[in-house]
Amino acid sequence: MSVEYNLSQNQHQTQNQRQLQRMSQRQIQAVTYLSMSAKDLREEILKAVSENPAIELVNDPVDFSQPEQTARMGSSSDSDAYMRALENNEDRPKTLQEHLIEQLNLTRLSPDEYDLCHSLIYNLDNNGCYGSMQNPESLLDKTRPTQTKQMLKKCLDLIQRMDPIGTCCKTIEESLFVQAQILGDASPLTLFILDGHLDLLNPPQPDKVLRNLQKYKASWHEKAFAKRIVLDDIDLTEDEAEDSINYITRRLNPRPAGEYISDTSGISRNQPDIVLTVTKEAGRLAADDFSHGKVCCDRDHYFQVKYASGDLPEIRLAPDYHFDKASIEKAKVFVSLLQFRESTLVSQGCMIVKFQNDFFRDGPDHIKPLTRKQVAQALDIHESTVSRMSAKKNSKYIQTEFGLFPVSYFYSSGVVGPDSDQKVSATSVKRMMEKLLADDEVKKLSDSKLAELLAQKGIKISRRTVAKYRSQLGIDNSYNR
Questions:
Q1: Are the CB atoms for 450 and 432 separated by under 8 Å?
Q2: If pLDDT is split at 50, 70 and 90, which confidence band does 138 have?
Q3: Whole-angstrom Cα distance, residue 466 to residue 427?
Q4: Whose CA is closest to 450, among 422, 471, 470?
């Protein structure tokens, strides 16, 4: 079954030269479903199942986390069976979120700090990390001026020091480094290995680790203008290497959240709708294949874009329903609308990956300017349709290997770059500013001086634009920094 919805608005010209734009009822339904959040769409699907016997519920991922919904959808005997199952179940174990919230409730915090910590805690995955979840900065409430990056840093540090120590980090590798810092008794060599050099422990044998460290040190100083590193101040011996191996393997916990289950009920108000996932797959692709979510990357890899249904119920046309043509037709239209939503979101994702190929290949520093109009023209759909799919308020996100990003993140305005014929995205400029202000020598510089430094890098923007970007980043002016 295939139903096409042409989302370009039809124009009709009358005798008095008036232009009218009309959308059919099905087109209106199609764009409505495109803009819906997962929560609203879930309710719409369950409503359709309850009202139309020609639609069959195949699977509901959160059926048992919502007993009131189960009782409403099923018979009284189903409800009784469900209640008996609940009564016969052992008490469920405490979740990581509940354990951290208990400690949070004993901490003296401002309302803004408490709410931010609460959001961070419910943004953790099964490993107690946020790397596969929402970027912590996106949890800052822009309507609350005190929720700044400085407050975010304080809240992250607070949660990382709670029991179990080392949660609320981006990755397990970062968690190990944070644990060692909190314990405070790790050697400089151990901290060096944990700070992004865990590969030097492969294999974890003192003589081979020592050899790896010596090779790293030698290759580092082969670079032009190489600065001194921690290894220059350490007497590298097998004993030192063995002590570091023992500390990492015996003192640190690679699974800090291992004793707890993670709360996946989605009760956090900040839980985003993960609409698409983008992965880099090995294999050569002759040409883009949007129908299967495949986009060219390089000669050895391609990008795979997949629709993430999440908590949406799985439905189908009831196979044994043979009467009431109106219900059958209505069910077919509803299912086709959902299929259209999925295929259109995947097509938009593929086009974003195609335009932002450098970002998905090399990381956030390589994002390019992109407008919704460009994507709409490339997909041959109306610009307002792309806007509905990518509006900031509708919680649609894309999961990448670099983290979770709102769809709106990939639409970035541009400024004049080093090559006057090519623009640089505003997002990239903001990241450059963050890196500059992280340098102690630059931290106190005024917006005018920052504009001059950016100009030296070929980025020509005014002081007022620098001030605007700095404010959007939540960074104080030079007087308050």
A1: no
A2: confident
A3: 12
A4: 470
Which of 119, 246, 104 is closest to 161 using CA atoms?
104
Neighbour tally for 200: CB within 10 Å:
19
CA atoms within 13 A on the CB side of 304: 9
DSSP for 358-403, please give it.
HHHHH-GGG-----HHHHHHHHTS-HHHHHHHH-GGG-EEEEETTE
Q: How many angstroms separate the CA atoms of 141 and 158, rounded? A: 19
CA angle at 18 for the pair 14 and 24, rounded to the nearest 5°: 75
Q: Which amino acid is at 363?
A: G
Beta bridge partners of 12: 20
How far is 38 from 392, CA to CA, in rounded Å? Answer: 14
Q: How far apart are the first and last CA of the chain?
A: 61
- Cβ-in-10-Å burial (0-12, 13-18, 19+) of 422 comes to exposed
**What 3-state DSSP class applies to 372?**
helix
What is the average per-residue pLDDT within 139-153?
87
Q: How far apart are CA 407 and CA 288, in angstroms?
A: 21
Grouping H, G, I as helix, E, B as strand and the rest as coil, residue 382 is: coil
Which residue type does 43 have?
A: E
Respond yes or no on whether the N-terminal peptide bond of residue 188 is cis (omega within 30° of 0).
no
- Write a three-state SS string for 309-363: CCCCCEEEECCCCCCCHHHHHHHHHHHHHHHHHHHHHHHHHHHHHHHCHHHHHHC
Residue 168 has pLDDT above 70, yes or no: yes
Query: Which of 425, 406, 427, 428 lies closest to 416, judged by CA?
Result: 425
Collapse the DSSP code of 413 into the 3-class scheme (helix H, G, I; strand E, B; otherwise coil) and give the result. coil
Taking only the tens place, the pLDDT of each residue in 33-53 is 888 888 889 899 999 999 998
Q: Token pair of 311, please? A: 């908590």
The SS3 of residue 75 is coil
Beta-bridged to residue 13, according to DSSP, are 19
For 296, phi then psi, to 5°, come to -60, 145
Count of beta carbons in the 10 Å neighbourhood of residue 145: 9
Q: Per this entry, what is the length of the chain?
A: 481
Q: State how far the Cα of 334 lies from the Cα of 346, in Å rounded to an integer.
A: 19
Look at residue 149 and tell me whether its pLDDT is greater than 70. yes
